[in-house]
């Protein structure tokens, strides 16, 4: 079993809370849930970036600082 970091577990629990513990009943429902989870995680990353850098342009920041390996 894969060990997840504390932050990954926190993000997953927050997403599950936002999903109101819905359980997909079909394959399509599972794909849609995975898509929402990916979007939720991406939003979480942007919120974290904004909090740290007081900036909303994460993609531009990452492209300009790729050599530095900074978030």
How does the SSE layout of this entry go?
Layout: H1 6-18, H2 27-53, H3 58-64
Low-confidence stretches: none
- Count, helices: 3
Summed over residues and divided by their number, the pLDDT gives a mean of 80
- Portion in beta strands: under 5%
User: How much helix, percentage-wise, in residues?
Assistant: 55-70%
Oligomer: single chain
Q: How would you sum up the major sheet? A: none
Gyration radius (Cα, Å) is 15 Å
Task: Please provide the ordered H/E string of secondary-structure elements.
Answer: HHH
Shape: elongated
Structurally, the number of domains stands at 1
SSE class: mainly alpha
- The count of strands amounts to 0
> Termini, distance in Å?
28 Å
Q: What labels would you give this structure?
A:
71 residues, mainly alpha, 66% helix
Structure notes:
With 71 residues, this protein is mainly α. The protein has one domain (9-17, 26-68). It is 66% helix and 0% strand. The chain has helices at 6-18, 27-53, 58-64. It is elongated and about 40 Å long. It starts with 5 loop residues before the first helix and ends in a 7-residue tail after the last helix. The mean pLDDT is 80.
Task: Provide a brief overview of the structure.
By secondary structure, this protein is mostly helical.
């Amino acid at each position: 079993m894969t060990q997840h970091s504390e932050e990954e577990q926190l993000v997953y629990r927050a997403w599950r809370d936002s999903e109101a513990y819905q359980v997909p009943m079909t394959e399509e429902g599972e794909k849609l849930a995975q898509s929402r989870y990916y979007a939720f995680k991406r939003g979480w990353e942007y919120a974290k970036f904004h909090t740290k850098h007081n900036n909303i342009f994460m993609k531009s920041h990452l492209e300009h600082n790729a050599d530095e390996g900074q978030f």
